[in-house]
Amino acid sequence: MTDVPTHLPPMGAVNSWDLSTGVDGPGTRFVVFTQGCPLRCLYCSNPETWHMRGGFRCRADSLVAQARSYVPFIAAAGGGATVSGGEPLLQPRFVSALLHGFKSLGLHTALDTSGFLGARADDHLLAATDLVLLDLKSWDRSLYRRLTSVELDPTLTFARRLGKLGIPIHVRFVLVPGLTDDPANVDGVAAFTASLGSVERVDVLPLHKLALAKYEKLGIPYPVADTPTPSREQVDDVRERFAAVGLNVV
User: Fold this and answer.
1) What is the CA radius of gyration of the chain?
2) Could you report the per-residue pLDDT of 86-142, keeping only the tens digit for each?
3) Which end of the chain is more exposed for a tag (fewer CB within 10 A), N or C?
């Protein structure tokens, strides 16, 4: 049997790619959504990305070639390229190749991750990462496991590593009434976030149910179908708690 040459660009499982503005990093972004995720978040917006067998297989260089044609437009809009998911760090070699390829085009790069597989992000991958969009879902460990089905500590370890390396971080906190809105939980996330040193902003994201149709199509129960969306007052209260420890909240 002939071995596969190791110099070939790595293949990856991809759900889709798209151009996006405002939610996947600064400016207009070329966004790759990878396939596969070890988490099962109760409010996941992309259940179609959970399994590696979904989506399609492609080489990293083919996606970089797709992005090349959009570089003038992206550059004019002050944007870049983002690797999202799913969970990108489930495929670290592929994601590293994507990030380095996007950097070679002169694009600002962002990695959108839960941080749970942060140990898989080696220094070579992070050297091509200009920004990490990091989900900090809860400070309470038992709640975090209930929310995601995995443990919190790997994410905290990865966040501390990013802080020590000085890699800019945008923290995302999803406000879910009856789950993540306890003041002690919010204050715990805020204090930890403030301790990292390289957090540029915090996005407080109110629960939405835009993914309900996806769950229905896939025949999967939507765990937060009966959970109310937070009020403006609830969102403002959480934003103020993050701002109170000196964080830039948007």
Assistant:
1) 18
2) 999 999 999 999 999 999 999 999 999 999 999 999 999 999 999 999 999 999 999
3) N
